[in-house]
């Protein structure tokens, strides 16, 4: 009946107000129609009809029932939840009007006070997202209220951790006996799972531009859990600086796609923009400018937003290479040489990008600084079960020249550096984190043999797909293959006239399933990377999204089929969803294709 009235109102815009009012009276919806008589003076140009699970455009002059593209997409074709759930799904094919301020958190059952508070704050973010979707809505008097009940029945810790159970169930149904209310029941073992359920609930809501109101599916039942426990996005803020507001928007996009790890590559040889209370010299000597610095409060702000979105912040302090001028203050402070090969000429002989710099593994003061640094960063992020120690692109030549040692001895220096760092952390905290991550390199192939006492706590992040099977067998692995998941390739390199790296399209991102071939690796998950040599403020979101969303579904759902043609329309709907929330994701095709997906996909 509601749909009849709403469609009748739109169709009757070509009639006089008196005739429309008469029709409304006959339909016993006088108040509703009286408040909407002046909505529009003309009919929309197009109507979308659902034919064989495809939304096809038809000129409105030739139809008797109006339906917007947005509503057709939600009610007609395959389910539009992104990423697709892995469990059972049942979705209604009818919808009812709702309003953001009529979503109410009716009940919270949680095992701890902090989880209870996180649920309330996360629900506040859901209401904020609904208000953004509602921007520009006109409205009428037939809204349904939505009461939400949330039960977290296991973990009393709201943080995302490597062993966090992210499963959830969501049930949405009309509340019997009211006729004007819906009830949403959410259950999960953890806060993070409940947060994902809130995201799914939000994805059942959309703005219908013809009706001028938010709509929600009238009923739904979803059981869901991710395929992989680590689903990340790396953002490099050392080569070029990004403001906190842009990082926060990226966090929101990650949450909308159920990614769970913001890998913050905060330092490199080009800059150390993190101000720490324990070692302020690092930022004083290492930041690009005094204004290009992240304060402890900045980090806490990002961490707080991420935690409420079900995301961990993993701060990477890259070492022992990629250190630069931030470590050049050692002699002045009476600590000796902390860094070697600083500004070495020609740089290409010592590092991949200038300025070069590599820590001195035989200076114990280096380990003193690192111990203080990592304790403070862990305190800032609250990420205690996982740390990232860098370890990429170590210059054997640098250490060879400083210590007059051959290649084999240089590899021993790398092992000495790594073992000393791990021992320091273990002594300071009482135990090693569940997972200590290093970038995969030629040197790290010796981990299994030389660091046996730590191997259960060590993970390797693999950028080169050729290394996956050769070196990683039996070691916990995070995959971030550059040939598929580096979101900055195809844009050229500043130091190469003709960079041959291809652009990683969303199709390439989506179709990449390396764990199928490399079955001996213990795959914790995967990660897309955004390196910032040729990217800066204002470009992050459009560079990463919606391609990062393609990875999100691959890591959450991992459907065995690789074909992306059926995914085109679904990803386009998700991209439109991001844009409606104020996240300016790049288009994946023309607007004509959005309106004629049957021709383009």
Describe this protein's structure.
The protein is built from 21 helices and 20 strands. The two termini are 34 Å apart. Helices cover 34% and strands 20% of the residues. The protein has 2 domains: 78-225, 2-Layer Sandwich (Chitobiase, domain 2), CATH 3.30.379; 230-564, TIM Barrel (Alpha-Beta Barrel). Strands 3-10-6-7-5-4-9-8 form an 8-stranded mixed beta sheet, sandwiched between helices. Strands 11-12-13-16-17-18-19-20 form an 8-stranded parallel barrel. Strands 1-2 form a two-stranded antiparallel ribbon.
Summarize the structure.
The protein has 21 helices and 20 strands. By secondary structure, the chain is of the alpha/beta class.
Low-confidence stretches: 1-41
The biggest beta sheet, please? 8 strands, mixed
Q: Tell me the β content.
A: 15-25%
Lateral arrangement of strands in the main beta sheet: 3-10-6-7-5-4-9-8
Q: Taking all residues together, what is the mean pLDDT?
A: 88
- Tell me the CATH topology of the largest domain: TIM Barrel
Number of structural domains:
2
**CATH superfamily caption of the largest domain:** Glycosidases
Structural class: alpha/beta
How many β strands by DSSP?
20
Q: What is the helix content?
A: 25-40%
Backbone shape: elongated
Distance between the termini: 34 Å
Rg for CA atoms:
27 Å
Number of contiguous helices:
21
- CATH class label of the largest domain: Alpha Beta
CATH architecture of the largest domain: Alpha-Beta Barrel
């Amino acid at each position: 009946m509601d749909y009849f009235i709403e469609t009748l109102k739109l169709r009757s815009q070509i009639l006089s107000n008196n005739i429309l009012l008469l029709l409304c009276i006959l339909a016993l919806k006088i108040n509703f129609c009286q408040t909407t008589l002046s909505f529009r003076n003309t009919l929309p140009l197009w109507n979308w009809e659902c034919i064989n699970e495809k939304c096809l455009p038809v000129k409105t002059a030739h139809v008797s029932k109006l339906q917007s593209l947005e509503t057709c997409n939600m009610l007609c074709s395959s389910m539009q939840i992104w990423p697709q759930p892995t469990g059972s799904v049942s979705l209604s094919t009818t919808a009812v009007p709702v309003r953001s301020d009529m979503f109410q958190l009716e009940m919270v059952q949680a095992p701890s006070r902090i989880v209870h508070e996180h649920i309330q704050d996360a629900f506040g973010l859901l209401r904020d997202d609904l208000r953004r979707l509602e921007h520009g809505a006109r409205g009428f008097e037939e809204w349904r209220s939505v009461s939400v009940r949330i039960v977290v029945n296991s973990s009393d810790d709201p943080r995302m951790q490597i062993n966090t159970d992210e499963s959830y169930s969501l049930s949405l149904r009309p509340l019997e006996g009211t006729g004007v209310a819906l009830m949403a029941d959410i259950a999960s073992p953890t806060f993070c799972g409940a947060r994902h359920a809130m995201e799914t609930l939000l994805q059942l809501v959309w703005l219908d531009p013809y009706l001028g109101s938010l709509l929600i599916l009238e009923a739904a039942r979803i059981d869901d859990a991710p395929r992989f426990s680590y689903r990340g996005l790396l953002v490099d803020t050392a080569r070029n600086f990004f403001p906190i507001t842009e990082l926060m928007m990226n966090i929101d996009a990650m949450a909308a796609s159920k990614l769970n790890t913001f890998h913050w590559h905060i330092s490199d040889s080009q800059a150390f923009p993190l101000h720490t209370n324990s070692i302020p010299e690092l930022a004083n000597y290492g930041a690009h400018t005094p204004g290009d610095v992240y304060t402890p409060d900045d980090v806490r702000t990002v961490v707080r937003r991420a935690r409420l979105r079900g995301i961990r912040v993993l701060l990477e302090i890259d070492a022992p290479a990629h250190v630069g001028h931030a470590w050049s203050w050692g002699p002045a402070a009476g600590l000796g040489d902390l860094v070697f090969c600083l500004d070495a000429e020609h740089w290409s002989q010592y590092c991949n990008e200038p300025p070069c710099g590599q820590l001195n593994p035989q200076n114990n003061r280096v380990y003193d600084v690192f111990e203080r640094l990592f304790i403070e960063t862990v305190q800032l992020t609250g990420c205690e079960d996982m740390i990232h120690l860098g370890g990429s692109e170590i210059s054997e030549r640098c250490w060879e020249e400083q210590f007059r040692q051959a290649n084999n001895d240089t590899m021993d220096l790398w092992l000495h550096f790594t073992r000393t760092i791990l021992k320091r952390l273990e002594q300071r905290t009482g135990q090693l984190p569940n997972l200590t991550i290093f970038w995969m390199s030629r040197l790290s192939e010796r981990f299994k043999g030389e660091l046996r006492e730590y191997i259960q706590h060590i993970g390797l992040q693999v950028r080169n797909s050729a290394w996956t099977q050769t070196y990683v067998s039996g070691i916990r692995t995070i995959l971030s293959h550059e040939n598929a998941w580096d979101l900055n390739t195809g844009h050229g390199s500043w130091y190469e006239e003709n960079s041959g790296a291809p652009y990683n399209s969303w199709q390439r991102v989506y179709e990449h399933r390396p764990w199928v071939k490399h079955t001996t690796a213990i795959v914790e998950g995967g990660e897309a990377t955004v390196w910032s040599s040729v990217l800066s403020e204002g470009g992050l979101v459009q560079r990463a999204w919606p391609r990062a969303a393609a990875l999100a579904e691959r890591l959450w759902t991992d459907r065995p089929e690789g074909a992306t043609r059926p995914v085109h329309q679904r990803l386009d709907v998700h991209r439109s969803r991001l844009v409606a929330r104020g996240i300016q994701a790049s288009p994946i095709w023309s607007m004509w294709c959005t309106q004629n997906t049957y021709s383009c996909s």
